[in-house]
Amino acid sequence: MTEILLDASERMQVILLTCRDRAFRHVEGTRLSLSPTSEST
User: Fold this and answer.
1) Of the candidates 32, 16, 36, 15, the residue with the CA atom closest to the CA atom of residue 24
2) Which residue blocks in 1-41 are alpha helix, DSSP H?
3) Which of 14, 18, 21, 27 could be cross-linked to 9 through a Cys-Cys bond (beta carbons 3.0 to 4.6 Å apart)?
4) Cβ(39)–Cβ(14) under 8 Å?
């Protein structure tokens, strides 16, 4: 799976959303993390 992602990333932008950090820790790239915010109503 990671080889396919790396191959595709040479030709286009790849955005990978996962909850399995450890499975993709060896894949290079910019990492972003999302965190909940408080909603004001």
Assistant:
1) 16
2) 2-9
3) 14
4) no
